[in-house]
Structure formats: C-alpha cells, structure tokens
Amino acid sequence: MFLHRWLGLVTCVGILMWGISGISHPIMSRLQPKPAAFAAPSAQYDLSQSQTVKSVLDQHGIIQFNHISLAQFSSKTYFRVGTEPNKPARYFDIKTGEELADGDINYAQSLAAHFTGKDLSEISKTELITQFSSDYHAVNRLLPVWRVEFNDSQHLRAFIDTEQSRLSSLVNDTRYWLTRLFQFGHNWSFLESTPKLQLGIAALVLCAVLTSAISGLYLYFKLAKSKRRLVNQPMRRWHRRIGLIVSIAALIFASSGLFHLIMSYQQQANTLAIKPETVLTKQLNPQIWEEFTAKPLAKLDLIAYSKTPYWYVLPASNSGANQMPVAQVAALAKEVEHAEHHDHHEHNIAKDKPVMPYVLRADLNLKNVNPPQQNSVEILAKQQVATILQRPISEIVSAETIKKFANEYGFIFKRLPVVKVQMNDADHTRYYVEPATGALAAKVRDIDGLEGFVFAYLHKWSFESLNKDLRDILVSLFALGNIVVALLGMIIFTRKLSVKHD
C-alpha cells in the first residue's frame, strides 16, 4: 500500500503529461495541413537536343560537384547542379547552357505552389534550412530543404527538397503549436539540451509507472473481499474500478514507451553518417550521354559511389504516367493511399509494364565498352553498402527495391524508392539505400525491427484491420482513463496526508 501510494504520487505528473499529449496527437494529425498534391509534377524530359552535362559544366568553369539532376518549371528544363551540400544548387538551361539566377529558390517556390495549391504571388518568404528546429523537427530527416512561407492567416510553410523534387513537410501555426505541446508533454523537449538526463528521468518515471500499475493490480485483487470498507468512500471505489479497466493499457503504453525510448537513444548515438561524394567534371565521358538521351526520361541523377560517377536513369512510361513517388506528410497515410489509387486509375498504370531504373558508369570509355554496360540499382546498392562497411560483397544475402512504405520501412524514413540490402550477420542488419542520391535512408537490425513492431502495435495501436477513427477514440479513452485514475489517486493521497497533519 505504501509503495503504491508514493510511486503513484511520483508518476502522477508523468501520466498527466503523457496522457494529455497522447490525447492531443489524434487532434494534431487531423489538423495537419493537407497537400493539394502528394507527388511532384509529372515530367518527361526530352534531352535529344540538349547539351551534354560536361559541356555545360566546362562552359561555367565548374570542376567538381556533388549531385546533378533535372528540374522542369516555367516551361523550361534545367540541369540542377549541387556543388556544395548546404548551399543552393545552380541551374543551367539544358539547350543554351545559360545559368538561371536564383534557380534553386525559383524551383522551390514552384514546387511549393504545386504541393499546396496556392499561387506564387502568395509566397512571402523563402529560406534555405540546413538544420532541424522547432519549426522543422528532426523527424523529417531531409536536409537541406527550402522553407517556403505563404502569406495567409496561418502562415503555411512548405518544406521542399529540390534535389529530389519532393515535399518533406507542411506546417502552419496551428500545427506548430500543437507539435510544440506534444513534444513538451510526450518527449519532454524541455530536457532535449541534455539528452542523457532526458533519457534517465523519463526512463525512471516510466519504470515507476509500471511498478505503480502492477502494485495497483496486486492491491485490487488482494483487497477484493474488503468491499465494506469502501462503502462510504466513492472516490476510492472509482479509483479502483477505473484503475482496473485502464491498468493493462497503462502497462502496455509504459513498457512499449520505455522500449522505444531506450532504442531511439541508441539509434541516434549509433547513426551511420554518409557524406556526399565529390565528382570531378573531368571524370565524365560525354559520349555516354547519347546512350540514354535518345528516348524521353522520367528522372535522371548523376552521383558518385566509391569515387566513381554513375548515371541513375529512369525511362519515361509509355502512358506518360507520373512516376514520382508520393510524399507521406505526417499522419496522412490514408490520404496518400487514395492519391495513389486515383493516380493509378487516371493513367491506367496497371496495364503498363513497370518501368525499371538502371545505372550507367559515367566515366567509361566507349572505345573499350560498346555499348556501356547497364547495371541494376540493386547491384550498385550492394557495392555501396559493402564499401561503407568495408566488408566483402559475399556477406550480402540479398537486395531488393522497395517502392512503398510498409512494415519496418515506414513513412518516417521519408525516402522512396530505396534498395533494401540484407546482410549475413548476427543481427541480420538491413540497410536501406536511396539509389538516386546515395543516401542511407535507414539501418534496421532485428532488435530495431522488433522495437518498431512493438511501438506500432502496442503503443500506437496501428492495426491494419482497426479503423483509424476507432483506434484514436480507444487510445484517447484509455489515456483519459489513466489521467482520471492519476488525479483521483492524487486527491486521495493529499486528503489522507492532510488528515494526518490535522
């Protein structure tokens, strides 16, 4: 009894903060500003009359770069050339080679107008974001991005990744303040400047919640026959009754939350950072350009793996269907699914043979290899992972392309498509590589996969067969029940304490 009372007092603040912020989450997700479009504008790039990338780079004296892609807006097509990781890219007309001043800003604004359905004239401010903040949280993962703000009553902000023409996040004032509230109450963001202290205090309180819930269950059944003593104590009766109903939920929420807390800290501490590689312009072979520009393209990227430049080529679909992946913004999974299905219906994609991307070495000499050898993106991803880990490629079990968020590779990882590279090690580690950029999107071990499963199904109750509205109602009711039990317990404790002092 003594243990339960004092632990209950200690955990009361934590339960109130987690419970109230937990209830706010479904509200926050429903007030999330919704994109007018989930995928970048469909584009078919005709490069048959364009200059080669090398000739344009030589024309402007660019001797090295990190990444090259294509951008289409204002009725023109441009080479987008990233020369430094956290600097605006440069844009060059594919036919004339002329540079477009403020090209990256213009493209970001064009994409922001597309994704939001707003007019360019409504944009009030555009700035490059190179680090995460309270307005653009680390959960969004993508950096750098452009923050494009609109002049409306809610100051809508669209965060745009121009390198891959995608929407990372949409935020307005309502969403911003609800997120701040959620982060304060659920993640204890007021302690984020001291991560170890944040982890330690939150873990201790969660352990206290678990102990308090278990001791409460023990007391309920131990004192189950002593009902007469509560005849004239309605507050104690309700504390017991509601406590019994929500205790299992409390155990589930607290244990899964503790598991998630510990694993998240470990994952952040062991993040595998990959710096973009530099490509020298003199490495490029302009003759290879003709091998993939004879037909329209849906996407084109030039990147380096292990100091070797590669073209990532995605041919255009015969039907002209939009092959850009859809964005998952916050909790809009259902809206994304509807957008995908609508797009498939509009373009009748089911009848099309899937168009597969491929890669070409950009430095090959056509005199020795004619035509240049095409490789699958899976082979390139395997080579990259083997190089990063400095392990033989024979230790890689398999590699497969992932085109949708599902299972252990959820929408929180942002990047699509990716290649899942499975290692033959004790942890069965899976590396998810984005072939168009060379970025490592995720590293998942068996323990990480288990934590993701536990968090999704035991903490968030993300059961596919359970209606989202019904799930949110149930989770909120159980969170509310825990709040009520905590408040009743606190009132009972303070009353008993005041009686003793009297």
Task: Write up what this structure looks like.
This protein has 502 residues and is of the alpha+beta class. The chain has helices at residues 2-30, 53-59, 103-116, 173-186, 195-222, 234-269, 289-292, 333-347, 377-389, 446-459, 468-501; strands at residues 64-65, 67-73, 76-82, 90-93, 99-100, 123-129, 145-150, 157-161, 166-171, 279-280, 297-305, 308-315, 358-361, 374-375, 396-402, 418-423, 430-434, 439-444. The chain has a domain at 2-31 and 182-272 and 460-501. Helix content is 41%, strand content 19%. The strands form 4 sheets. An 8-stranded antiparallel beta sheet has the order 5-4-3-2-11-12-13-14.
Keywords:
502 residues; 8-stranded antiparallel sheet; 11 helices; 41% helix
